Amino acid sequence: MTWTFEKVDIELLDNLNLNSHEKLLYILIKRFQNCKNGINVSNKYLMRRTGIKSKITLRKYLDNLSLYGLCARYQPGQKKTNTYTFDRNEMQSFIRMQLGKKKAMSKKMKSIKAHNKYKTALKNKDVIPINKVRGSNNDLP
């Protein structure tokens, strides 16, 4: 067995804004910086290596790294590996793409939630659907 090591900036270790998982994620991602195909790391790999159990928690930690300007990620789609960057110019484009995807997803989730709320309300016997009321001879316009 051979031992390898990673050099870590003392500033990263002394950073009080990052927790231990965020620091470990940064080091793991930084290891792939010199790959010829770019930094493509899956969430599953990062979760397995860090012991993080939830994808939501992992995303929160990765978002914090992005927030502090240490690295940025782009998710090309489901079941595909994330692409990471440490280049400041590329970070901005990655962050813009991610924000666009998050806004679209948020809008979609809000419409699904509203639709489900409507369907749940219709199951209540005290609620009368508007389309049934409008077709009757009531005083409603």
Description:
This protein has 141 residues and is mainly alpha-helical. It has a domain of 96 residues: Orthogonal Bundle (Arc Repressor Mutant, subunit A). Helix content is 55%, strand content 7%. The chain contains 6 helices and 3 strands. A 3-stranded antiparallel sheet has the order 1-3-2. Helix 2 packs across helix 4. It is elongated, with a radius of gyration of 23 Å. It starts with 9 loop residues before the first helix and ends in a 7-residue tail after the last helix. The relative contact order is 0.09.
Task: Briefly summarize what is shown.
The protein is mainly α and 141 residues long. It has helices at residues 10-14, 20-30, 43-50, 55-67, 88-123, 130-134; strands at 39-41, 72-74, 82-85. It has a domain at 10-105: Orthogonal Bundle (Arc Repressor Mutant, subunit A), CATH 1.10.10.
Radius of gyration: 23 Å
CATH fold category name of the domain at 10-105: Arc Repressor Mutant, subunit A
Q: What would you call the shape? A: elongated
**CATH H level, superfamily name of the domain at 10-105:** Winged helix-like DNA-binding domain superfamily/Winged helix DNA-binding domain
CATH architecture of the domain at 10-105: Orthogonal Bundle
What does the main sheet amount to?
3 strands, antiparallel
Q: Which sequence of strands runs across the widest sheet?
A: 1-3-2
Approximately what portion of the residues adopt beta-strand conformation? Answer: 5-15%
What helical percentage do the residues reach?
Answer: 55-70%
Question: Would you state the CATH class of the domain at 10-105?
Answer: Mainly Alpha
What are the secondary-structure elements, in order, as H or E? HHEHHEEHH
End-to-end C-alpha gap: 81 Å
* Structural class based on helices, strands and sheet pairing: mainly alpha
Task: Give the overall average pLDDT.
Answer: 82
Number of strands: 3
Helix count, DSSP H or I runs of 4 or more residues: 6
